[in-house]
Design goal:
Helix content: 40-55%
Order of helices and strands: EHEHEHEHEHHEEEEHEHHEE
Number of helices: 9
Radius of gyration: 18 Å
Mean pLDDT: 86
Largest sheet: 5 strands, parallel
Strand content: 15-25%
Distance between the termini: 43 Å
Structural class: alpha/beta
Strand order of the largest sheet: 2-1-3-4-5
């Protein structure tokens, strides 16, 4: 797995690259948002560590642009520790958010946790599993991370895909908000549940019918074929 470190502070970048290399990851480093987007368009990397304070563009714009291109996992690392910054980054498609300063052990643990959640079997050295879930005319292929609705592909962000795939595990079953957040946003989730509502709203719009995702007041959500 190749990890791209997007960080303009050379001292921080050097430490992160060294730590990741020691942990067995292949790493590359760029110091600007434009260089990061160029690297993504060129066909790599497999994972992005993204600082928000870049010299040429805001990291949130970089996050949004990367997510529009690929489903590559993104962990934002930033000195911005306000809840609004974390929620915004996550809603724009980041898979996790780590506040500076941080320890390398924690960063590596989060990389592995995100890799597990996104079923990155290549990173784990395991063969991919056949885990397609079908709900009515909706087909969710975990291996290719593609979603088809009546044969037409629907393009989702990484988090939208994981949310939909999780709910599709048991169609018709109501999943509690806390369980969804733990499964999709990690057990260490520290933001509000508003990001869950935002992702549900986005999924309803992309699926073309809000009845695919039903909210159960005070409990959570369920996925079911619209009647």
């Amino acid at each position: 797995m190749q990890i791209l470190v997007v960080e303009d502070d050379e001292a921080v970048a050097s430490g992160v690259v060294e730590g990741l290399t020691r942990a067995g990851f292949e790493t590359a480093h760029v110091g600007t948002g434009s260089a990061a987007l160029e690297a993504v368009r060129a066909g790599g990397p497999d994972f992005v560590i993204l600082d928000l304070g870049l010299p040429d563009m805001d990291g949130t714009d970089v996050c949004r642009a990367i997510r529009a291109l690929v489903a590559t996992p993104i962990i934002v690392v930033s000195a911005r520790d306000e809840e609004i910054d974390r929620v915004l980054a996550l809603e724009l498609g980041a898979d996790d958010y780590l506040v500076k300063p941080f320890g390398m052990r924690e960063l590596i643990a989060r990389i592995r946790a995100v890799s597990r959640r996104t079923q990155d079997h290549t990173a784990e050295g395991l063969p991919p599993a056949d885990t397609t879930r079908n709900v009515g005319t909706l087909s969710i292929d975990q291996r290719s991370r593609r979603v088809l609705l009546a044969g037409t592909e629907i393009h989702l962000t990484a988090k939208e895909f994981e949310l939909l795939y999780y709910l599709a595990e048991e169609p018709g079953t109501v999943f509690q908000r806390s369980d969804i957040l733990r499964a999709v946003w990690d057990s260490n989730w520290y933001g509000t549940t508003k990001t869950l509502d935002a992702h549900v709203a986005a999924l309803r719009k992309k699926l073309g019918d809000p009845r695919w995702l039903t909210a159960v007041r005070g409990v959570g959500f369920r996925l079911e074929v619209p009647q």
